[in-house]
Amino acid sequence: MEFIYKEGLLVNGYERARNLINEGKLDEARDVADYCIAVIATERFENDATAEDTLDGVRIGLWLERFWINILEKNGLML
């Protein structure tokens, strides 16, 4: 099955995760961040994307940094 990225998914996911953190819904924020990281991994695996390629106009490497560091690590959400 071919993976086709839906434009805006990561932008919306990042905003949603940040809002959930502000609302104190940390488990939900972790789930959103994990889902977005899985989407990035699928894009990289199935479509041979590199960290320098872009999704929603942002480098994939920067998306990973945003979700892993800004959402998960800085908020103590790493499992």
Tell me about this structure.
This protein has one domain. By secondary structure, the protein is mainly alpha-helical. The protein has a two-stranded antiparallel sheet. It is built from three helices and two strands. It starts with 8 loop residues before the first helix and ends in a 6-residue tail after the last helix. Strand 1 and strand 2 (58-59) form a beta hairpin.
List the helices and strands and how they pair.
Elements: H1 9-22, H2 26-47, E1 54-55, E2 58-59, H3 60-73
Antiparallel strand pairs: 1-2
Helix pairs in contact: 1-2, 1-3, 2-3
* Number of helices, where a helix is a run of at least 4 consecutive DSSP H or I residues: 3
The computed structural class is: mainly alpha
Helix content: 55-70%
Number of strands: 2
The outline comes out as: elongated
Biggest sheet record = 2 strands, antiparallel
Please report the distance between the alpha carbons of the first and last residues: 30 Å
Question: How large is the radius of gyration?
Answer: 12 Å
Number of domains: 1
Adjacency order of strands in the biggest sheet: 1-2
Mean pLDDT metric = 95
Strand fraction = 5-15%
N-to-C SSE string, H for helix and E for strand:
HHEEH
Unreliable runs, pLDDT <50, ≥5 residues? none
